[in-house]
Design a protein that fits this description.
452 residues; alpha/beta; FAD/NAD(P)-binding domain; Enolase-like, domain 1; globular
């Protein structure tokens, strides 16, 4: 049978665009359908604008610390609309780059909502297209709990387009998005509280990291309220919000921001017209080659619920393109030793196993840990401390996990991830000469294990 396209991609986010571009480069006839914005969550309402807001939030500390180095600054003021307008301009530029990348690769870009009619057919804008393969890469969407008054709250999407910086903010959630946005609002001068229903946020991260970040956020004036959750929200006549907590307390705020999880974007995709099945969490079920129960339909990225990170979606998109159209170059995505960063203030960088995960996996471990005040702060009154930690297999000497809290943690962890991917041992770290004076050299100078 002759098809209109060899590959029809639904979703022009990171994974979808990568798969489309490289498939086209391998000679395939490719179409991409996108109903919202080019670049997906990461470019528009995720990693990129969030990092820009984090940079903006950090300047207050920079201005204060500059005095210790002899700088006399006038009174600084912050204008939220300026930051948002400049952010919007940068995102618009990136949207254009994504468009050019697709069109320059020979991909057919269809702007509108695509819906599958069967295993090989897609409808968009009243027109039917046929494809040998269909790739679902529609990403995720913020989930706000259906509590009374939930319509008065916002999620991460809306946070990027607030007209003004709220004076009082309640951030609800305990994952990295909650911690990052709490840091942003707090750093920009809003009175900020972070509410989490558990004992301690950042579940899944090394406990030493979680406790250290807790201490540092408290130093910065962030109000942390664990074992707390909102039961209902009531909007007042003056526009302010009253949040009634499960313990009966009432907190007042101008903005209530929920970062309590994301769900896959599967609305009106026509999955019912295919054999595609969802798992118990609501994500699309795929095998190790990203193929669904419908052989012609594949899925990657946040909709499959594996590791929901942009670089992972990129790798999955590349793997699909290679397997389908250049199999001699195909290789599986390795989900081990994936580095990640949390762009809170301070930053978190981590790769490999936490101490708790290593022990649960049966490893006998040696733990190396260092806490210190960064050199940049020694001429200031700032009491921030950095944390660096290595989790080492006591039998093989292999480094199982590497964790950092402090300035530029993500930048430092990236390089260490290469070493760990290559199987570096603690001896390799010990024999590596450090770059002095840097914070990063601490990772190669820790010699004595600490008690867990």
């Amino acid at each position: 049978m002759t098809y209109d396209f060899d590959l029809f991609v639904i979703g022009a986010g990171s994974g979808g665009v990568r798969a489309a571009r490289f498939a086209a480069g391998f000679g395939a006839r490719v179409a991409v359908a996108e109903s919202r914005y080019l670049g997906g969550t990461c470019v528009n309402v995720g990693c990129v604008p969030k990092k820009l807001l984090v940079y903006g939030a950090h300047f207050a500390e920079d201005f204060h610390q500059a005095q210790g180095f002899g700088w006399s600054l006038g009174e600084a003021s912050f204008d939220w609309p300026t930051l948002i307008a400049n952010k919007d301009r940068e995102i618009e530029r990136l949207n254009g780059i994504y468009r050019n990348l697709l069109l320059g690769s020979g991909v057919t870009l269809l702007e509108g909502h695509a819906r599958m009619l069967d295993a090989h057919s897609v409808e968009l804008g009243g027109k039917r297209y046929s494809a040998k393969h269909i790739l679902i890469a529609t990403g995720g969407w913020p989930h706000i709990p259906n509590i009374p008054g939930h319509e008065h709250a916002i999620g991460s999407n809306e946070a990027f387009f607030l007209k003004q910086l709220p004076k009082r903010v309640l951030v609800v959630g305990g994952g990295y998005i909650a911690v990052e946005f709490a840091s942003i609002f707090n750093g920009l001068g809003a009175q900020t509280s972070l509410l989490y229903r558990g004992e301690l946020f950042l579940r899944g991260f090394d406990k030493a990291v979680r406790l250290h970040v807790q201490e540092e956020l408290i130093k910065r004036g962030l109000d942390l309220q664990f074992n707390s959750d909102i039961q209902r929200i009531d909007k007042q006549a003056d526009g302010s919000l009253h949040a009634t907590l499960i313990d009966g307390r009432v907190l007042e705020a101008d903005c209530i921001f929920f970062a309590t999880g994301r769900k896959p974007m599967l609305d009106n995709l026509g999955l019912e017209n295919t054999l595609v099945e969802l798992d118990e969490r609501g994500y699309i079920q795929v095998d190790e080659q990203y193929q669904t129960r419908e052989p012609s339909v594949l899925a990657i990225g946040d909709v499959i619920g594996r590791v929901q990170l942009t670089p992972v979606a990129l790798a999955e998109g590349m793997a699909v393109a290679r397997r389908l159209f250049k199999p001699e170059e195909y290789r599986k995505v390795d989900y081990q030793m994936i580095p990640t960063a949390v762009f809170s203030l301070p930053n978190i960088g981590t790769v490999g196993l936490s101490e708790e995960q290593a022990r649960a996996a049966g490893h006998k471990v040696n733990v190396f840990e260092s806490r210190f005040r960064p050199m940049k702060l020694t001429l200031t009154d700032c009491q921030e401390r950095s944390l660096m930690k290595l989790v080492v297999d006591a039998d093989s000497d292999r480094v199982l996990g590497c964790h950092m809290v402090g300035p530029d943690a993500g930048e430092i962890i990236q390089g260490l991830a290469v070493a760990m991917k290559a199987g570096a041992t603690k001896q390799h770290f010990d024999e590596t000469i450090g770059v002095h004076p840097t914070a990063a050299e601490e990772f190669v100078t820790m010699r004595t294990p600490v008690a867990s």
